[in-house]
Design goal:
The complex is a heterodimer of chains A (about 160) and B (about 325). Chain A is an alpha+beta fold. Chain A has five helices and five strands. Chain A has two domains: about 80 residues, Ubiquitin-like (UB roll) (Roll); about 70 residues, [2Fe-2S]-binding domain (DNA polymerase, domain 1), CATH 1.10.150. Chain B is elongated. The chains are: A alpha+beta (about 160), B alpha+beta (about 325).
Chain lengths: ~160, ~325
């Protein structure tokens, strides 16, 4: 079968690949481009571990066809740190011990980033709602919720 | 028909590790030429923080900062033998093995330093910052960096140690059946408050208050993390999780994780954790195994709270709405 060309911006860099038609964005990111920060949990859109940001919106990369992303701007967790300095969300997750096995963490951070991009000062309920498409086996969620609230506070302090 | 509130309590006594056919773990420790220390294990870090704890234990024993220790784990082809990371045994078994290995390495390190400083090794101490000092005369000192260089390039010594920790197998006494399955026990007590809808059978856990007695908390933040996550997981076991809802009948069992029910961030009970530290006699620096037992007491506490709320004993897990409604129906017909 003929390969399909696909081009998009990933974490600020132009990417071009030839892929099989029907390849998911998750598969293209991990196995073609080599960005393994989105994780393949359920591959059916229920666990949230594969979450990425496409044109500012939270998307499940396991349910998104790579060829549908032509021209899109995609952000993954691996693109958040700048010059070795962690993004405030990554810092907050680390400081709050909001990660154990780490498998859900990139998806959680993507969901939290989209929340904070749209709602810089979220309530606890906002955070719970934003994370409700992501499941975690280890932490019991509370440290993750606290980390997102802490990151929101540090963002608003920096902005002030 | 009403929402009924109930409160339940449970206490548990949890062994650290298992009575296997003997329960051993081994560790090797060696220094690099620059005086960093390498701990080699085949135990696995599953995210519970084993590498951090083993680095702390090794650093404390040798007398160097924790960031001078690297822990290599999880290759059973090449690492010293470990039964595995399960049964809350990792910190206790591997930690004891690391202490023994680190002590032996420390002794060699002090012997090399003694030759360099021309003093007796028993007169030396470490400052915890990477230096070895003469007791009572701290101006006479040498860095561990220089000691390692000397050992490698001048004295031909290997600053290394071997560690072995074994809990021997316990056989039951023929007459009484008495045995000693473990040498060390952690404890916990939980009070759970629930609401049960006696029309739908749905249970909402309002609060869980947990007290955990876990020996010495070698890393208090990581202990807290484990206990908070475990408390949630206990509630999940009590109310939601199963692969075979009608066991032994396999009907309606999930076929993958999508059909395995687990609470999300919107289903959290208000959770309180209190840690009591009673150092164990045979644990590394007094540690016990808090790993698995943190998810245990919530289960009977929730079952007891359901009984307190609606008067039915559910003795099969998980405590589903269906089981509660069937029990309520049976109770009404009696």
């Amino acid at each position: 079968m003929a390969k399909v060309p696909v081009q998009f911006t990933l974490n600020g860099a132009e990417k071009a690949e030839f892929i099989d038609s029907g390849t998911t964005l998750l598969h293209a990111l991990r196995d073609k481009i080599g960005d393994t920060s989105p994780k393949g949990g359920c591959h059916q859109g229920t666990c949230g571990a594969c979450s990425v940001i496409i044109d500012g919106e939270l998307r499940l990369s396991c349910l998104t066809l790579a060829e549908a992303c032509n021209g899109a701007t995609i952000t993954t967790t691996s693109g958040l740190s700048e010059g070795g300095v962690l993004h405030p969300l990554q810092r907050a997750f680390l400081d709050a011990f909001a990660t154990q096995c780490g498998f859900c963490t990139p998806g959680m951070i993507m969901a939290a980033k989209v929340l904070l991009d749209h709602t810089p000062n979220p309530s606890r309920e906002d955070v719970v709602e934003a994370l409700s498409g992501n499941i975690c086996r280890c932490t019991g969620y509370e440290p993750i919720i606290q980390a997102v609230l802490t990151a929101a506070r540090s963002n608003s302090q920096n902005a002030a | 028909m009403a929402i009924r509130r109930g409160r339940g309590v449970a206490a548990i006594n949890y062994p650290t590790g298992m009575n296997l056919g003997g329960d051993p773990t081994q560790a090797l420790v060696h220094s690099t030429p620059t005086g960093n220390f390498m701990v080699t294990l085949s135990s696995v870090d599953l995210g519970q923080g084993m590498k951090q704890i083993m680095a702390q234990i090794c650093a404390e024993t040798i007398g160097v900062p924790t960031d001078r220790v690297v822990v290599d784990t999880a290759d059973t082809d090449t690492g010293p033998h470990c039964m595995g990371t399960f049964a809350s045994r990792g910190t206790h078994r591997a930690g004891n093995a690391v202490i023994q290995a680190a002590r032996e390495a420390r002794q060699v390190m002090l012997e090399v330093a003694a030759e360099e400083l021309e003093v007796n090794a028993s007169d030396l101490e470490t400052d915890g910052q990477g230096n070895i000092l003469v007791k009572g005369a701290p101006q006479k000192s040498i860095s561990i960096f220089d000691v390692a260089l000397s050992a490698h390039f001048k004295r031909g010594r290997s600053i290394s140690g071997r560690g072995m920790f074994l809990i021997p197998r316990s056989y039951p006494e023929k007459e009484t059946g008495a045995m000693k399955p473990s040498t060390c026990y952690a404890h916990a007590c939980t009070v759970a408050e629930v609401e049960v809808d006696d029309e739908t059978g749905e249970v909402t856990v309002l609060t869980v208050k947990n007290v955990f007695e876990i020996g010495r908390a070698l890393n208090p933040k990581m202990v807290e993390q484990q206990l908070v996550g475990g408390s949630w997981m206990g509630i999940s076991h009590a109310l939601y999780e199963t692969t075979e809802p009608y066991y032994p009948n396999r009907d309606h069992g999930g076929t993958d994780f999508n059909q395995y029910l687990m609470p999300g961030p919107g289903d959290l009970a208000q959770t309180e954790i209190i840690v009591l530290e009673r150092p164990s006699a045979d644990g590394p620096y007094g540690a016990k195994g808090p790993g698995e037992m943190c998810a245990n007491p919530q289960i009977p506490a929730v079952a007891n709270a359901v009984f307190d709320a609606v008067g039915v004993r559910i003795d099969t897990l998980p405590i589903t709405p269906e089981r509660i409604l069937r029990a309520l129906k049976a109770q009404a017909s009696n």
